[in-house]
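Order emerges. For instance:

***
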Amino acid sequence: MRSKFKDEHPFEKRKAEAERIRQKYPDRIPVICEKADRTDIPTIDKKKYLVPSDLTVGQFVYVIRKRIKLAPEKAIFIFVDEVLPPTAALMSAIYEEHKDEDNFLYVSYSGENTFGQEGWVELPVDDMDKAFICVSAAKKHWVWVLCDVRSSYQNCVLIVPLVQRPVLHTHSSFLSVSFALLFV
């Protein structure tokens, strides 16, 4: 997505502003947040944010939701370089990995997974108990588990909607599928 902020402000001015901000507030991240094209989600009232470096992506999404007065039942997705970042990631880590050459972090948001691909991805699951945990956590998002019962559940495959890059987490030996911001 092309940034309107970049179109409206020359590179030298953006870079100088970001450097000034980083010098004055070294524990803050300069973020430009813009609505993605072709989405019916409300437009945010301001684009520039100084985000604490220890804020998580999920907490930042909460700030955006409040700024645009989005109803709790409505989905919101944020993208950095057209990728859904993990909600538990610190904004400082996202900044270090994805900051622009002008030293701003560009974030876009949408009511749909506009950069996701259509289709499905299969993920092998080695334990049926783990597979049921996945299904119970994400059943309203069309997650299915296919198992070959003739092989005593040894060949289970978790099938999930392809959301850019599905993220797998293992916590206490439980497998869970992160659907980025669907649960925020």
